[in-house]
Amino acid sequence: MAEELMPIGRFARLCRLSVKQLRHYDDLGLLSPAWVDPSTGYRYYRADQARAALSVGLLRSLDVPLAAIGQVLAGKDVADVLGGVRDRMEADLVRRRRMLATLDRVLVDGLPAAEVQLTRQDARRVVFAQGTGSIDEIAAVSSDCAARLTAALEAAGQQPLGPLVGLFPLDMPDELTIKMAAPVEREIAMLSEGLLAGGLFAAATHVGPYHQISLTAHALLAWIGERGHVPTGEIREVYLSDPRRTAEEHLITQLMIKIEED
């Protein structure tokens, strides 16, 4: 047995992994030793396990999650598993680039401030598409809702009576419900119907990419808090520009938050 198997230290050097890593992978069930001495607890590996161990090391160096590596070692389609990992990495890279662009704007302009006005809005009948997702998925869920809303309006041959409105919760739970609404004259198949509440709103205008709207939302909420107002309902984003025809740096979005009245 001892001549056929390699002790963990020798196997670790062969595979360019640490003993600690091999023990961890064993604990996870990712790469178990061929034999464990019941009296000492020492781990031993077969030579033909080296390829699997080297694959683990390679994929971890590429930041592939251990769960995905486990799927690869279990024989799942490599292209499917690693293709999904790559897609998630690319999405994260896009998100981080947007964060850098937003940080650059703060570095140039300072912490956000905005001109805020109080405006009274009437209640409006709307149809909407909704979806749920985490904070990191807000952009993707919003885009999906907008696409479904627009497609349903076009299929019904109905033009909205005003700009599309995004509705986002003030609270930030682990999973958010996001709605994209359009004011209409009549109901539309495949879309939910509701009433967009009226009342007194604090409003500010954002000019720039949608992913930087948080800067204006920050300024709007700060203005509300500093003046002792109590926000209620949701954050509304009224999209005054057509993103298909407008450069993102020129997109105009009106942010509105309803405030409680005495």
How would you explain this protein's 3D organization?
The protein starts with 5 loop residues before the first strand and ends with a strand. The radius of gyration is 27 Å and the shape is elongated. It has helices at residues 8-15, 19-27, 50-61, 66-73, 78-109, 138-155, 213-226; strands at residues 6-7, 35-36, 43-45, 117-121, 124-133, 165-169, 176-183, 192-196, 199-207, 231-239, 252-259. The relative contact order is 0.11. It folds into three domains: 6-76, Multidrug-efflux Transporter Regulator, Chain: A, Domain 2; 77-110; 117-259, Multidrug-efflux Transporter 1 Regulator Bmrr, Chain A, CATH 3.20.80.10. The strands form two sheets. Strands 4-9-11-10-6-7-5-8 form an eight-stranded antiparallel β-sheet, with helices on one face. A three-stranded antiparallel β-sheet has the order 1-3-2. Helix 4 (66-73) packs antiparallel against helix 5 (78-109). With 262 residues, the chain is α+β, with helices and mostly antiparallel strands.
